[in-house]
Specification:
The protein is α/β, with parallel strands linked by helices and 333 residues long. The protein is built from 13 helices and 13 strands. Helix 4 packs parallel to helix 6, helix 9 packs across helix 13 and helix 10 runs antiparallel to helix 11.
C-alpha cells in the first residue's frame, strides 16, 4: 500500500480577496492544514488580520512581487506543498509569472493558478472566449517550470456575475431590467465562492497520492482541470429565482432579448474603443452560446460526487447577490 501522505502546508496569494477569503475559511474548517498568506511588503494585511479580515490563526509573510528574483518570496514558499494564486483583475500581468517562478525555485510541487473560469481544455473556448487562451498559457507556464498545476474550472462566479450588472449575466437588478441572451434558456455551469472554497478544502483533504486502489487522491488532478459547480442554470432560472427572493414577477421587469453572436461582436467592438465592460459583454455572451462549452454538467457531477460536495441553494445565492446590489457593492472601487 502506498504511503498516505497528506498536504499540510498551503500558501495563498490573495487570502483576503473575494475568492481567497472563502478558500481560507473552508481550509480552516477542514483543519490539519497550516495556511500562509503571502502579502505585499507594502500591504496592511497584518492590521487587517487583527481586525478580522484575515483570521488570526494564519501565518502572514510579507513579500515583494515586483522584482524578478526576490529571495523573500522564494523563502516564504520553501516547504510549502500547495500554492494557491488569486490575483485581482487589476494585477500586473507579470506578477503571476514571478510568483510561479519563485514557487518552482522553492520546490513547491502543486500550484493552483489564477485561472478560475471555464473549461481550459475546450479548444473552441480557447480560440474565441478572450479569457481561456490566457488561462491555458498560465497553466502551461506552471507545468513548464516544474510544478504541477491544478486549475479550478468553476464557470462564472454566480453572485459576482448576477450582481455586477447587465454586461455580465444580463441583469440590472436595481432597475429590474434583464437582457436575455437569445431566448434566455441556455444553461451553463456556475459556482458560488463558497462552493469553490469547499471544493479546494475537500481536494486537499485527500491523500496526495493514491493510498488505496480506486480511492481519490490529489495527484489524479495533476496538470488537469478540477471541475466545480454549484448549479446548471439559465438566465430564465435566475430570473425565476429573483422573483422568489424579492416577490417580483415578469410584469415588474423590463425584459429584452439579444442574439449572443451580436452581443459577442458588440463586446469586441467596445473593447477596441476602450470600453472596459466590453470584455465582460463579449466573454459572457460567448459563454451563453448554445452548446458553447460552458455546460459541462456530466464531468462536474462526477467531480462533485468524488469530493462529496453538497448541492448549493440557488435562491440563497440569489439572495446574497440581491443584497450585494442593495448595499452598493462594487469590486472596482
Amino acid at each position: 500500500m502506498a504511503e498516505n501522505i497528506r498536504i499540510q502546508k498551503v500558501a495563498i496569494v490573495g487570502a483576503s480577496g473575494h475568492l481567497g477569503k472563502h478558500f481560507v475559511e473552508e481550509l480552516l474548517k477542514a483543519g490539519n492544514i497550516t495556511i500562509t498568506a503571502l502579502t505585499r511588503s507594502t500591504s496592511n494585511s497584518t492590521l487587517r488580520a487583527a481586525g478580522g479580515t484575515l483570521p488570526p490563526d494564519i501565518k502572514i509573510e510579507k513579500v515583494d512581487y515586483e522584482t524578478e528574483d526576490d529571495e523573500s518570496l522564494v523563502s516564504a514558499l520553501r516547504g510549502q506543498q500547495f500554492l494557491i494564486i488569486t490575483l485581482s483583475v487589476r494585477a500586473d500581468p507579470s506578477t503571476h509569472g514571478k510568483i510561479v517562478a519563485a514557487a518552482a525555485k522553492a520546490g513547491v510541487p502543486y500550484i493552483m493558478p489564477n485561472v478560475y473560469g471555464g473549461d481550459i481544455t475546450d479548444e473552441s473556448l480557447r480560440k474565441d472566449d478572450i479569457y481561456s487562451a490566457g488561462a491555458w498559457k498560465l497553466c502551461l507556464e506552471v507545468e513548464q517550470l516544474g510544478p504541477a498545476y491544478i486549475a479550478m474550472c468553476c464557470g462564472f462566479w454566480f453572485e459576482w456575475s448576477l450582481a455586477l450588472g447587465e454586461q455580465w449575466f444580463g441583469f440590472d437588478i436595481q432597475n429590474r431590467k434583464v437582457t436575455f441572451f437569445d431566448d434566455g434558456e441556455t444553461k451553463i455551469n456556475s459556482s458560488t465562492w463558497q462552493q469553490c472554497g469547499r471544493a479546494l478544502a475537500r481536494l486537499l483533504s485527500l491523500p496526495e497520492t493514491e493510498a488505496e486502489a480506486g480511492k481519490a487522491a490529489v495527484a489524479q488532478w495533476k496538470n488537469k482541470p478540477l471541475y466545480v459547480s454549484s448549479f446548471r442554470v439559465s438566465q430564465r432560472d435566475m430570473l425565476d429565482s429573483i422573483h422568489r427572493v424579492t416577490g417580483s414577477t415578469d410584469s415588474d421587469w423590463e425584459i429584452r432579448r439579444e442574439s449572443t453572436k451580436k452581443r459577442y461582436q458588440d463586446g469586441l467592438d467596445e473593447m477596441q474603443k476602450g470600453v472596459q465592460t466590453g470584455f465582460a459583454k463579449a466573454l459572457y455572451a460567448r459563454g451563453f452560446y448554445p452548446g458553447g462549452g460552458r455546460d459541462v454538467e456530466s464531468t462536474i457531477s462526477r467531480t462533485n460526487q468524488v469530493l462529496g460536495l453538497p448541492k448549493d441553494d440557488l435562491d440563497k445565492a440569489t439572495e446574497r447577490a440581491v443584497e450585494m446590489v442593495k448595499s452598493g457593492w462594487s469590486p472596482f472601487g
